[in-house]
Amino acid sequence: MTNTLVRTLSGAGFVVLTLCCLLLCPYTFGLFIIFIMVSMMAEFYKMAIGPKVYSFSRILAMVAGVILFGLIFAYGNWGLNPKFIALAIIPVMIVMINSLFVKDKAEFGKFAFIYTGFLYIAIPLALSNLIAFRHGEFSAIMLLDFFVIIWCSDTGAYIAGCTLGQREGSKKLCPHISPKKSWAGFFGGMAFSIIAVIVLNFTSLLNIPTIHCIFLGIVMHVAGVFGDLFESMWKRFFNVKDSGSIIPGHGGVLDRFDSTLFAVPFGSIYLALFNLL
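RESULT FIELD:
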């Protein structure tokens, strides 16, 4: 009960912080996403290669992520020529060049995790600018809609999983990766996602046809589940319980935003395919 209370309070506090940063102005949005990006990459690298291994290269990878985000932000906010976005590849190339001069080549394979962190975390978050800036103006409403859908999906999955998914004989979703996740939680999360998009549509916060709202909720829920399982697979592989401990009751920032890394890109792709973004 205590853990549930801590989880609820810390989750609510993080939701309030997210809402304030998204809605206040483009600069609070930018600082918030950069904080999330750097925190998630730092947690992933600590989990994958240890706290003090190849520090210079992983800092460069995080810098590359921040530069990529900043360049796309400048494109959306100030109309920067998009060709300059290619400059973000320079720190990544420096990481590759730096790997040639590492004296201890015994753990050279760990450089693959450095590139993985950039691809897995930095690129999806940097591309969130394309949702926040539309037609040259900042409007985080669509991105806010995405977060609401993801939060409702997680909440529904948690409630249904705790109440129905832990009963004897209940079917597990992917027991070899995440033993606690159940099909009851999967469908509970989907139901909450659909309810969320219908409410958003009814309140005019999500101005797309109702049928597309429903499909968007389903697509983002399914993608979010895969994002959650993907991070769980990494944690199982590295034999860690949580990616960090910054959010009481939730673990690390990567634990809290793992589904976002899959759900937001897939939601964006769905809307783009139907010319709704």
